[in-house]
Amino acid sequence: MDGAPSKGVLSHLNLLEVLARSRKSQPQQHSRVNELKAKAAALMKQRDQLKAEIQTHQNLQKLRTSMDRQNSNDEEDEMDDDSENSENSQLLRLMARHTQLKDLLDAHHLIGGYDVIKTSRGKGVCVSLATAYEGVYLDTYNLEIDMKPKLRISRHNIPPFIPLNDLAEQSNMETNIKDFLDLLSRHLNAFAGRKQQLKIVKEELKSIEVMESNVLCSILVLMFTVPRQKTAVLCTLDYTDHTRCLPTRVHFDSEDQELPNSPEWKKNCSLLKETPVHKAIITMKKMGHIV
């Protein structure tokens, strides 16, 4: 009787002890699991870093191999292609030099310089004079000038309506060739400017009719139309100063005899004297004076 109850109590106590131990071990197991998960995450991160480093190393190795092969090929071909490479290098240097000289030449023109080269006969020089208007290069003219036995123009392609001999005498070319070239350049550039203005009027201002012009572009007659009265106006531009692109005289003819003396047409007269003709016409159109 005494043994059975004692055995039952002891068994119960053992069971309680086992349960207690089991409960104590559970937090430790959870803690161990979390620790293992963190370690696994760290190892995965380290693995990814190692993969990236390996890939980078492989890429660098491929690049080095490619460069080594290229250098090897270059060294092998150097002897065979030495003359070709030399010619290519020389060509590149010449192209760079050509571009540099062209830029210098453009700057030379912009500051009013002249291109001068020695003639093949060695007794004179060839002078090139470039013309331009509003930043656009136009025609280039050349003179071949003999220096011996005396200074004289031997050949040229100056337009015949430019008084070359008169300009040479006027500027005393034999003693001061620079003054002569400056005067000739002003005549040529003024002619080029007047010619370019006339071209713009014909091509871009279709409502304006060009009635008359001469080869020197020193006389220009235009037909305007007044919008309100539908009256025609003949405008004569006279460029008596052949070294300028602007007219020295402007004259209007109209059936309405009072029109040329009206304030707005006096303003138009001043505008045409002070502004290139194509720009003056555009302004007159904007003001509604002509169509």
From TrEMBL:
<feature type="compositionally biased region" description="Polar residues">
    <location>
        <begin position="58"/>
        <end position="70"/>
    </location>
</feature>
<protein>
    <recommendedName>
        <fullName>Centromere protein O</fullName>
    </recommendedName>
</protein>
<feature type="region of interest" description="Disordered">
    <location>
        <begin position="58"/>
        <end position="88"/>
    </location>
</feature>
<keyword id="KW-0137">Centromere</keyword>
<keyword id="KW-0158">Chromosome</keyword>
<dbReference type="Pfam" id="PF09496">
    <property type="entry name" value="CENP-O"/>
</dbReference>
<comment type="similarity">
    <text>Belongs to the CENP-O/MCM21 family.</text>
</comment>
<feature type="compositionally biased region" description="Acidic residues">
    <location>
        <begin position="73"/>
        <end position="85"/>
    </location>
</feature>
<dbReference type="GO" id="GO:0031511">
    <property type="term" value="C:Mis6-Sim4 complex"/>
</dbReference>
<dbReference type="InterPro" id="IPR018464">
    <property type="entry name" value="CENP-O"/>
</dbReference>
<keyword id="KW-0539">Nucleus</keyword>
<dbReference type="GO" id="GO:0005634">
    <property type="term" value="C:nucleus"/>
</dbReference>
